[in-house]
Amino acid sequence: MDSWIYPALERLSALGLIPSQSVAIRPWTRQECLRQVKEVEESIDAYGLNDSVQQEGLRILSDLQKELERPEDSNGIVLESAYTRYGVIAGPALTDGFHFGQTWMNDFGRPLRQGGSEITGFSARGIYRRYFIYDHQELQQTPGTPLFSAAEGQFFNTLDNIPFGSPVLPGPFDPAAPATSAYLRQRPLELYAGVAFKGNALSFGKQELYWGPTTMGPWSFSSNAEPTYNLRLVATRPHPLPFFPNLGTYRFDFVFGKLSGHHYPARPYYNGAKVDFTFGKNFELSFTRWSILWGVGHPMTLSSLKHNLFSSASTGTFGYGDRTDPGDRKSDFDFRWHFPGFEKFVTIYADAYADDEPNPIDAPRRVAWAPGIYLARLPYLPRMDLRFEMASSEELSKDEGGTRFFINNQYRDGNTNKGFLLGNAIGRDARAFEGRTGYWITARSRIEFGYRQRKISDIFLPGGGTTSDAFLNASYALSQTWSAQAFAQYERHLIPSIVSGAQHDESGWLQITWSPKLHVNR
Predict the structure, then answer these.
(1) Is residue 477 in a domain?
(2) In 416-502, at which residue ranges do the beta strands (DSSP E only) sit?
């Protein structure tokens, strides 16, 4: 999801050149990206090259063709990329999105601490007929963790446990947890294998889910946390609707996986289903249902799975540790609409999330919302785009505090994997807005500026909190195989629960990537 291909293809869709694009279920396969490229070529051939929209699309298309129309997609093993990144956070970093916020968001759950960090990794894939394997490994060096005091443990207990009427629970909040020194670790960021058939794929392993149209991050699954281990059945390309193929297309994504880093209870699992529809050339919508279940103290049986999938009992009626609890069930609804009359310029979208409703549209004032608008090009500035998004995990009808979303009375670590939020990193009981504008030199070379502000309710944190970020993203293609990416950010946060007075930090990283596409035939 950090590839330059995604914003390039999404911009081409916003220019009206990929009518069948489905953004609610990602990542896409290389074959799906190539299918979209072919659709752009057909659209340009049909419309001609007199329109400035098609001229801009053709400029982006050139880089995509060079990247995707290569012979290495035949059977064999391909080294896709190798890279190294060095980053620094100078100042007090925010590292806990579940409670306070994160200085770096949507970074795949990589180590997040004050100081310097270095990452070196590679990605490779193998294909044999309909079988495939993907491996993305990283060596991560990071600063250590600070002392975790008993007072901090009690404060987290107040936020996560006491609102549900529970006393201090055994677990990670034991007093005087020692600090740790800097460490070096190797880990797979993604590692999975599977089989493809009839536009679908069945796979197993550690793989990312990105379920929604927003750039800040969908509510359910995003790039913020480390990918999970899961079994997944996904439609890798749009399929015509049964009985009414001319009406539109559909895709689906079914997943069953395991979450890590949880303590209350430990070692839970999750299941999820998402169905996405596109209608005509301008409208896409999808529905999601997923839940957290099982874990220590909750039996892993077919009966408990049946209750999780079909029971209508509210989890609020079960005490902590109740073995008959059906699990923490959630729903989601999102849409994307190329605005009629301005469909080559304006795209409107939104993501809505509910913790206790069959679907967010059943009770729109009691859910979390994240609307956005994308202008694929600006008047008289055809190489510039503009995106503005908002997100609120406070329901519209009433602010119910930090226990309303992403946590419930049974699963206190909530929607996290290894401590990072699975979805939008604005976190619990907060509101945020983000604006960003970019200048497209080419599809692979782009400069983007942005500003984000996030406010935490004082019902959740005493005194509330405000975080403001101004950031710069830049990428430049040095050659067909070499590229450089840079990120810089200035952050100001005022969160009295952590420390009195405003805090500041400056951060950034530089990454050099080699994409040789070295191919070894079987």
Answers:
(1) yes
(2) 416-417, 420-421, 430-440, 446-456, 465-477, 482-494
